[in-house]
């Protein structure tokens, strides 16, 4: 599996705010916000439920990863998806850094991936 998720007890906007705050507690900032719903409406005139991709980055760990493997930026940042389901519930999903970074055959990167996963699992637990 390449990710893990949780249901959020609150609104879509509250989920984005909460996940951003919880990520900050673990040293992550949001580098990018991709509003998939708005993009698909603009580009394809397709109506979708609210769906946003947050590109989260922990600068300290990202620096260590880039130092170990310069091309690792191809696999960064850690994406977090907040989406509204058909039943109007909210799901927050996280990229599993260990699964993604297995593509990089470097022991230092594997250790960093485990650290990042621990942090993201704490964020998920705080949202549950």
Report the end-to-end length measured between terminal Cα atoms.
Answer: 20 Å
Strand line-up of the largest beta sheet: 1-5-4-3-2
What fold name stands as the CATH topology?
Answer: TATA-Binding Protein
- One letter per element, helices H and strands E, the order comes to EHEHEHEEHH
Model regions low in confidence, pLDDT < 50 over at least 5 residues:
none
Shape: globular
Number of domains: 1
Task: Write out the CATH superfamily name.
Answer: TT1751-like domain
Structural class label:
alpha+beta
Main sheet characteristics: 5 strands, antiparallel
Which architecture per CATH? Answer: 2-Layer Sandwich
Number of strands: 5
Helix tally equals 5
**Oligomeric assembly:** single chain
What's the alpha carbon Rg, rounded to whole Å? 15 Å
Protein name: DUF302 domain-containing protein
List strands and helices in order, with pairings.
Elements: E1 3-8, H1 12-25, E2 29-35, H2 36-44, E3 51-57, H3 59-68, E4 78-84, E5 90-95, H4 97-101, H5 107-127
Antiparallel strand pairs: 1-5, 2-3, 3-4, 4-5
């Amino acid at each position: 599996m390449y990710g893990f998720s949780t249901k959020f007890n609150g609104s879509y906007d509250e989920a984005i705010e909460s996940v951003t705050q919880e990520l900050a507690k673990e040293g992550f900032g949001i580098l990018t916000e991709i509003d998939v719903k708005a993009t698909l409406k603009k580009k394809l005139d397709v109506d979708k439920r609210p769906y946003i991709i947050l590109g989260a980055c922990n600068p300290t760990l990202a620096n260590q990863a880039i130092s170990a493997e310069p091309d690792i930026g191809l696999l960064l940042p850690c994406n977090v998806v907040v989406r509204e389901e058909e039943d109007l519930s909210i799901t927050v999903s996280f990229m599993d850094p260990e699964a993604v970074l297995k593509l990089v055959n470097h022991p230092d990167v594997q250790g960093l991936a485990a650290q990042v996963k621990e942090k993201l699992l704490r964020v998920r637990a705080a949202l549950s």
